[in-house]
Write a structure and sequence with these properties.
InterPro entries: NA-bd_OB-fold. By secondary structure, the chain is mainly beta. The protein has one helix and nine strands. It has one domain: OB fold (Dihydrolipoamide Acetyltransferase, E2P), CATH 2.40.50.140. It is about 5% helix and about 30% strand.
């Protein structure tokens, strides 16, 4: 049986879970320091505004690239859950790794039974403006 859980309830010991989340940060894919591994770290949050880093490696980046768009809502099921690596700045006690058996399903606008998550009030918005004395062309 699969359980619908919030981010704070999912641990490495949790089996057969699904969580409803919204993608809030999606930087570009990067390479490891030795250049051998491509990876991408995205940040998702749930309705309680709990956040977790989600890591994709290699082929999984391309496989899920078209699915994962900023501010879209997803149901993520059975990703690997691990303790963040020591050199990362953790967003949670754990991070999720998407791999070939992970199911990532977008929640559509017209889904009445399972509506989209609203945009967070805490999403950082930046205003860009010209500094004093700057000119435009």
């Amino acid at each position: 049986m699969e359980y619908r859980l919030t981010i704070d309830k999912i641990t490495p010991q949790t089996k057969e879970w699904t969580s409803k989340v919204q993608l809030i940060e999606k930087p570009r894919p990067r390479k490891s320091k030795d250049g051998k591994t491509r990876f991408q770290i995205v940040v998702v949050q749930n309705e309680n505004e709990d956040k977790v880093a989600v890591v994709l490696y290699g082929e999984d980046i391309e496989k899920d690239a078209h699915k994962l768009t900023s501010f879209s809502t997803y149901l993520i099921s059975t990703a690997k859950v691990r303790i963040p690596l020591p050199y990362r700045v953790p967003t949670n006690h754990f991070e999720w790794v998407i791999y070939r058996f992970t199911v990532v399903e977008e929640v559509k606008d017209d889904n009445i039974q399972d509506p989209l998550l609203p945009l967070s009030d805490k999403v950082e918005h930046y205003t860009f403006c010209l500094s004093a004395g700057a000119t435009t062309k």
